[in-house]
Amino acid sequence: MASRPIFIAQEAFPYVKVEEIDFKWHPGLSVTQKKNSIKSLHEAASERDAQLSLLEISTKSDDPLGVNLSAFNLSVTMADGRSVPVENIFQSSKVFERGGPFKDLLNVSPKEAKRDPRLLESGDLVGFISKNRLWPLQPVTIFYDWIYINTLRSNKKLAEQVATFNAFTDIEFNPKKSINCQARSAALFVSLQQKNLLDTVLASPDVFIETFSKNVSKADPKQSRLF
């Protein structure tokens, strides 16, 4: 057995409800085993709440939409015309005690960007730099949510399709090892879209940060290594 979170779009702030689901884990690194674990997770979640419309967001998803919404595939068009995945933007924006941001990570594969050794060898994370702005570490998912939601909004087809779901999973996400999660960001997008708040909260980084700083407790400083 294993336990993983599902992220449910909800009307009330903070707009995402997180529920831990116990399910049968299928060990192994093969895609087949990952898909079996996703199926078990979704079945267990549906048994708890039959009203859930679940979408797995990862490269292991059975639904092409879930694959396209993976941070490895969901891309933004840069000023120079390049199409760059969310994962690369996130990793290349990190600023550490002894280095960063490493903008060359915009030019490699998402997997290479995520595994670049400098991300582990440059000390504690101190923030993110995007368009000459330093983003804070609090709230803990604020910068990841910002780039994911902005990118998704720019793709009208995907934005329309994701709105047909109200709950999201990411079989690769383990909250004991990571903080940011594409499934959570997708749930947040759907909530804001349904409440017609996207334009309001995305008006500027300051508005976005202020909106999600309400009643947010400080994270354990040790977690900075998990970004």
What does this structure look like?
The chain has ten helices and nine strands. The protein starts with a strand and ends in a 16-residue tail after the last helix. Strand 7 (125-130) and strand 8 form a beta hairpin. The model is unreliable at 217-227 (pLDDT under 50). A four-stranded mixed sheet has the order 2-1-9-3. Strands 6-7-8 form a three-stranded antiparallel sheet. It has a two-stranded antiparallel ribbon with strand order 4-5. It is of the alpha+beta class and 227 residues long. It has one domain (2-226). Pfam families: NADAR-DarT1.
Any key phrases for this structure?
18% strand, three-stranded antiparallel sheet, alpha+beta, NADAR-DarT1, 227 residues
Strand ordering within the main sheet? 2-1-9-3
Give me the Rg, rounded. Answer: 17 Å
Q: Residue ranges: pLDDT <50 for 5 or more in a row?
A: 217-227
Reported for the largest beta sheet, the result is: 4 strands, mixed
Q: Give the percentage of residues in beta strands.
A: 15-25%
* Secondary-structure-derived class: alpha+beta
Helix content: 25-40%
Task: Give the overall average pLDDT.
Answer: 93
The total domain count is: 1
What's the helix-strand series?
Answer: EEHEHEEHEHHEEHHEHHH
Q: What count of helical segments does DSSP give? A: 10
Shape: globular
First-to-last CA distance:
26 Å
Give the strand tally. Answer: 9
Pfam families: NADAR-DarT1
Gist of the model:
This protein has 227 residues and is α+β, with helices and mostly antiparallel strands. 36% of the residues lie in helices and 18% in strands.
